[in-house]
Amino acid sequence: MKLYRSFLYAFLFIGLFASCEGDLDIELRDDDDLLADDVFNEPGGYLRAIGGVYGNLSVVGLADPGTSNLSGIDAGTGNYIRGLFNLQSLSTDEVIWNFENDPGIRQIQRNSWDANNVIVLGFWARATFEISLANEFLRQTTDAKLDERGEDAATRAEVRTFRAEARVLRALANYHLLDLFSRAPFATENDPVGFTRVPEIAGQELFEYIESELLAADADLLDVAPGNASQYGRANKGVAKMILAKLYLNAEVYLGEGNDRFADCLRVCEEIINSGYSLTPNYLNNFNADNNTNGAQNEIIFPVIADGVSVRNFGGAAIIIQGQQNANGAFQPTPQSFGVGGFGNLFRVRRELSEVFANDAIFANDQRNTLVTEDVPSDPESTDAPVPRDINIGADLLDTSSGFLMAKYSNITSAGQPGQDPTFVDTDFPLFRLADVYLMYAEAHLEGGGGSRTTALGYINDLRERAFGDASGNIADADLTLDFILDERARELHWEAHRRQDLIRFNRYTGGSYIWSFKGGPQNGSSISENFKLFPVPASSRSANPALGQNTGFE
Amino acid sequence: MKTFTKSALFLLWLIPMSFFAQSTVTGTVTDAGNGQPIPGVNIIVKESTNGTSSDFDGNYTLNNVNDGDIITFSYVGFTPQEVVYSGQGTIDIVLQEDAAELEQVVLIGYGASRKKDLTGSVALVTSEDFNAGNNVTAENLFTGRVAGVNINTNGGPAGNSQIRIRGGASLNASNDPLIVIDGLPVNDPSDDDNGSRSILSAINPNDIESFSVLKDASSAAIYGNRGANGVIIITTKKGKKNLQVSLDTQTSVTTVDNKVDVFSGDEYRALIAENFPNRVSELGTANTDWQDEIYRDAFSSQHNLSVSGSILQILPTRVSVNRSDQEGLRKTSKFERTTTSLSLNPRLFNNHLKIDVNANLNFEKNRFAEGVERDAITFDPTQPVLDPTSQYGGFFEYTDATTGIAIPNVQRNPVANLLQTRNIANVRRYYGNAKFDYQLHFLPDVRAVLNLGIDVSETSRFQEKPENAATGFNATNGDFLGSKTDTEFDTENRLLDAYFIYNKTFGSVNLETTAGYSYQKFEAEEFKTEEQRDPTRVPEVFIPADEVLIAYFARANLKINDKYFLTGSIRRDGSSKFGEDNRWGYFPAASFGWQISEENFLKNSSTLSNLRLRLGYGVTGQQGGIAADRYLERYSGSNQNTQYILNGQVVNIVQAQFRNEDIEWEKITEYNVGLDYGFFNDRISGSVDVFRKESNDLLSEAPVPDGVNFSNQGLQNIGKLTTEGIEFSIGADIVRNENVNWNVSYNVSYLNQEINELAFGQDILLGGIDGGTGNNIQIRRQGEAPLSFFTFAQVYDSNGRPIEGAYADLTGDGVVDNNDRYVSGKTNPDFLMGLQSRVDFYNFDFSFNLRAVIGNEVYNNVASANAQTGNLFRNVFSNAPTSLLETNFRSTPDVIQSDYYVEDASFVRMDNITLGYTLRDVMKGVSSLRLWAGVQNAFIITDYSGLDPEIQNDGRDQSIFPRGRTFLLGLNYKY
């Protein structure tokens, strides 16, 4: 009976052999899954990691454009720029989103949001995620960590610049939180990753924190070099200054009456203007498929990059371009005319923004006026006469036959070629550009920030001459007023996610001093209360971190 | 008189003690089937504490036997025998395998138990009770037969089933039960995207001998790490001693039994004339029923051949081959399967070493047909299917008037989509196990069991569209490229179980203990070319982290006098999904059974033949359905489309990923009280179970503090869910005689689930719906059932018609806002019922299965997203459900969140009616020949206005693959 013994031994042997609890320590085998140490021990790891901090402004997750690293918000709607556009432009007289069955939209565009609004949640989560990523980069690149990895001097120099950029990107997110929420979670690289309920930073403290961060980062940042394609898209000294300028321009809003910083604003604007940027001769090149190379790269201070192949998202310029088409395919503009397949007609222009162009016939020649005011047959052979569109948007938003359309953004290059992909555009979103600085200079001057009136007038007319192609649109000295600035900002910068901030600064946003269609709800608009100058901190964020406060009216 | 009787009894009692000498008896117990000795047979002197068991050679010695003693010989799976001792020196016993008794052996995980010894809530369904009909996937053999088990099978050929035992136990993690085939836990059913239709579709239903369903935690805890949602143990058929050949063949046709009511071409023309008078000229002249066009009569056949017998009289073997060809109702959809199965069951060393080898090699070929129902429901009925002028393969498509190119974002011709798409998966799967059960020669009370298992599946899949397909890559851009993707998907699952069983009878007490070790590893790898017509795409390889599960377990069963039963078990489980400090969990269980009917006061009852009380408690663990690597400090690299451009170059970026180093087991504690009963010698029998399940530390996707982690939500152990229920089953042999038999069985279960705690008390919206981007219609809220519908309350006019956009101000604060949404229904039913009847009348047999699901709601998203006049024209004409005439609703956004679309989805369905006729001994060599015919899904009774209330999509009806009605003809042949 020896055989049975062999069975028994075999049995025991296999039992022992397999008893390896070490197998419970798994290894990541997919080349897209890495451990933190693997990332930074590989060549190019620091670039990949800072790329992740930048990338969060454009992509919503690393799997594909339809899969988000956030929850509770549709992947496309949770894109950084799309969130910013929804909160800064859709909540104003600039634009209407036709499909109010998309959750949260009605509350945003009718100024009736609450702490459970998913679009508010989407932007808050995306911006705080930017802070997390920047913190993680700073955490992984301390001197101690660099020593540990034995990095050489060249790498250290590169990392020093990246670290400064991470701080600028973090400051950018904090600036957006300040502007929209007046508060932010005060999370820095010194907080451990996990579930720490970090304190809140709000109002003046937040303002000063952003300011100090930008000033501290400046020394290590790249200089402005618009012609240098190899530095395109980097958060350089110009970007840091631009955020500072915005901070100073709106200081009274952030810090309260009497705390203006227009002089600082004007000074920083001068520094930016003198650092080498120039206006692109063609206004629309700023919003084209090749705005990274067609000359607009000299004007755009900070682009959020998109690429039809490599950098895909359902936000940024993509959603705007896809949604600009005429709902009726028989009429222009067609999706093809923008170089895309089209998602249907998503956007229309509210009457009040249309009027900043339509109220004066002179703007018929303004290149910035891309309003579609009539239905022109898309068939070039058609002899049908164009049918004028009604400037008013009807109460039923699904009836898209009235209201003007917009044709500002495009996925066609300056040479007339469509972008690489019909769904995902090549057009970078111009988050900050020089024209804005010109307008800020003029405004800061008019607000008593110093500088020269002639210079201010010159900047405005530079923009006008570019827009009109000649001096026919130039304004006279007497025309240069604050009210003019607000309207001119709308003409120059509409649909670029600035309008809400501008209206608030000019005291036209809340209350009844300025009513636009669908403001507060009704087709003809209504007054809204003061608290709608801000968005509420999302309820889910406050539940996870009770240290976060809430804005008045949303408790 | 009483005194006299007692005294007489007393005297009788004394007789053996005082007058007869005690002696010893020896003998050998053998198996009537193969003549082999049977070790471990319980040999007991009846009504005493005196007993022993046979050794490895089947020999036994029993001391202290007196004349007149009754000696019982019993062994699991054999008919017990009783012998009256009358001084024999040797009693050799030949035990007969008992078919009836065999049925009563229930697999309980790492061992077996007699059904009457069970202390947990375990249901057994054997082949005799299997459902009749076209059951292509194994689970449908017992649909409706087990109280508390809901099997919801979708309509595709060999459609996947959602199986819920006692409602599942989790919110975010898996709710699927563990499925174990001959001791091998097979791959997680949620991994069904590998080209196979479902976890069980690769398995030949004809190979299955029985299902054991472990419902409560006291029984499932022995599968600790994955027992949380119950366990289904499948036993396959084994080789037998005598040659048996069985041939089954059946053929069936399935027809469409119901369609969504939409407007016909003529009705639609009238409707447009009324709503869009200036567009009438753009309408077509056809009358197309697009739903008729995408469906067909689907023919199916199944053939099964099995041979079992003993090779050279020593090697019991079973071989089976099954071929199944199933067409789906949806055109082009098809399932083809060939399974081969080999079972070798040698018994060596006088039955000391039992080897069971099971090997299966299966081929599945699936052609998938895309869910084109939505396009078919909304496609303009005035347009024809074919358009001779079309450049898209001669199919009508909406094209741009000037360019002739297909317009984006409109319906595509659903018929073209079906006929032009070839989406085919070839799955090769082999699985099997080798089990060595060795009874130690030197210590026959101990058995050592080794079970080695493997389950490998290799899928190669492609999707192809011709160049003239309007659904091809970039077709709306004017390209004619078609489409092509290839996918390879391989999974592997390896198992090793090793355990010892010690079984010993001490007088009237029987003790069985089991202790062992289990190791299982899951690996997967996927290769995808992505769209090959897209020059920017490059192939990708996806490799999820391996999953490893390691467990140590022990169990003890104590039987006293066959009256009192105690079971205790403990399991220590490690999972690779948790970090080092949290990966081990302990899962204890205890249960108690009391055979009340064996007590003296009931023993002689002629009415009550069985009464048994069961009490059970157990803790099980859950880690299924969650990602494997959340505890690691993990970064992800970007895909080719999610990179960023820096320094003028495309940078493959990395981002840190959400992490939770503290993630650990979700734990489910369950209490169960059960009562088994039988009357009139068990002609009427059944059981009642009451249970309460508490799921704690739920693996939940919950908000995390902003700025310190890498998402706004992530996996955390927060939350609590309670499930309570009552299950009742009864079966009766109403008529039982030589020529006529009629038995009926019925079961009903009641289930109530409630969320007790969510992270931070926060509601969680979920349940995405059509008709908008990112809309949710369901909620998780404390105090409510999981998957509750969260809607506004519709306001109706005096005629009972819903008023568009008018919702009730439930908070009474004067405005209707998000605070006025309320819970208007739930997805899980209150009651499940099954009723089965079978009549054998001479050579005829007639059976039916009726099943009811009561008390659940469905959100009719087909109607809510389409049945509004505003949708009749959007870029192009769109058809709509005719229910829009009842509501006259115009705008989708104004009504999509109305409770009007939350409908009662209770139903009663006649799953199957079968009539058969059996010819016996018709010719030489044929022992029986049965011809039968049946109807599957014969009818359904429901108030639900949509196509079918039984849907899988968590209660959101977004159009389904219809089930159809199936007519079957079959033949069984036995030799």
UniProtKB/TrEMBL annotation, chain A:
Transmembrane segments: none
Keyword set includes Acetylation: no
Presence of the UniProt keyword Membrane in the record: yes
SUPFAM superfamilies to which the protein is assigned, alphabetical: TPR-like
Chain ranges of the RagB/SusD domain: 398-553
Keywords from the UniProt entry: Cell outer membrane, Membrane, Signal
InterPro entries in UniProt: SusD_RagB_dom, TPR-like_helical_dom_sf
Subcellular location: Cell outer membrane
Family assignment from sequence similarity: Belongs to the SusD family.
Name of this protein: RagB/SusD family nutrient uptake outer membrane protein
TrEMBL record, chain B:
Record carries keyword Signal: yes
Major location category of this protein: membrane
Annotated signal sequence range: 1-21
Cell location: Cell outer membrane
Key words of the record: Cell outer membrane, Membrane, Signal, TonB box, Transmembrane, Transmembrane beta strand, Transport
InterPro entries: Beta-barrel_TonB, Beta-barrel_TonB_sf, CarboxyPept-like_regulatory, Plug_dom, Plug_dom_sf, TonB-dep_OMP_SusC/RagA, TonB-dep_OMP_SusC/RagA_CS, TonB-dep_rcpt-like
Occurrences of domain TonB-dependent receptor plug (ranges): 115-231
The protein, known as: SusC/RagA family TonB-linked outer membrane protein
Lyase is among the record's keywords: no
Species for this entry: Aquimarina gracilis
TonB-dependent receptor-like beta-barrel domain span: 388-937
Membrane disposition: Multi-pass membrane protein
Family as reported in the entry's similarity comment: Belongs to the TonB-dependent receptor family.
